Every structure is written in C-alpha cells, then in structure tokens.
Amino acid sequence: MDQDALIERVRQRAIADGTPPAAPASADEVAAAEAALGRALPPLLIRLYREVGDGGYLLWPLSRITASCPRGAGWPAGVLPVLDWGCGMSGAVDCLRPGAPVLLHEPNAEWDDPARTWFEDSSSLAQWLADWLDGRAWWEEHVMEERDYEMLPSWPDAAARIASSG
After folding, report:
1. Tens of pLDDT along 60-112?
2. Measuring CA to CA, which residue among 70, 128, 134, 133 is closest to residue 100?
3. DSSP states of 24-43 as a string?
4. Distance, CA of 28 to CA of 26 (rounded, Å)
5. pLDDT at residue 37 above 80?
6. For residues 62 and 69, is the Cβ–Cβ distance under 8 A?
7. Residue 127 belongs to what H/E stretch?
8. Can you give the pTM of this predicted structure?
9. To 10 degrees, the CA torsion angle through 61, 159, 78, 23?
10. Euclidean distance between CA atoms 93 and 79, whole angstroms
11. How many CB atoms are closer than 10 A to CB 75?
12. Residue 112: exposed, middle, or buried by beta-carbon count in 10 A (0-12, 13-18, 19+)?
C-alpha cells in the first residue's frame, strides 16, 4: 500500500468531512511523546501526526495520548490508545508488531478475564485507514447491517501482553 497516497487521502478526507486536522506535530513533539510513553511510535502513525496533523481527524492529539496512556498492570504492554469510540471503548495501536495492528478495547464486555475485552480491528494501521477511507470499516452503519454486526476476532496476544505489563 502506497503510504504517500494513503497520507494524502487521510488529509483530503479530514478536510472533506469538515474536521480539518490540527497543525502537524513537530519532530520535537513526536520525540517528547515517545520519551514520555517509553516506546517508539509506529512509522505510519508518526507520518500521520507529522504530515496530516496532530489530531482533529479520527486520532487524538499526541498530548492527549501521552497524558492518558494507561501504564502498568491490566493494560497490554506496547499498546497505545489513539481514539475514543465512546461508552468506554477505545481504539489502540499495537506498537510492538510490524504494521501496527489496530485493536478495539471493549471494557464493557462482561468477562472476568480482561484479555477477553480486546479485539483485533485490523491487521495493520494502513489497512485500517484504507478501510475507513473506502467505507469498509466495521463501524460504518451499512457495514454493520451487511455483516449483521459480526463481532471482531479476539486479539490473540492480549493475555500475554497484559501479563507482561505488570
């Protein structure tokens, strides 16, 4: 997938949706966020913040991510929350796997095991963005109706990552 074209499509979609992105983040702001989070951000995520804008379209601003990133026991190691779906649900990026898979955290699921509240939304950030841009994302109303709102698959790394975060 051509990342240059993908970045431009995200920029144009944000403008067309009437939610123009904030000013792009500087290299220093990205470096400060990475230092505060204690991990490198995936390259495509950095490009979104540096070339499209520091939030204002789907993603939270870096300052919000840095301030609200859960740490320690109960939150999977290497997982960065990047957006709020409402009702306690959040979208997150797996910063440890190639391609930066996008995850859905649904803490309202009535499970005794926190690992069962994690779902794999997309195998990569690039694919997740393409699905959004092409109207194929699970949260699109017509997709929910067509798929009869099938649940996303469980995230297989959740238990191991939660165990290693404590």
Report:
1. 899 888 887 776 667 888 888 888 887 888 889 999 999 999 998 888 876 67
2. 128
3. PPPHHHHHHHHHHHTSPPPH
4. 5
5. yes
6. no
7. helix 125-133
8. 0.86
9. -10
10. 6
11. 19
12. exposed
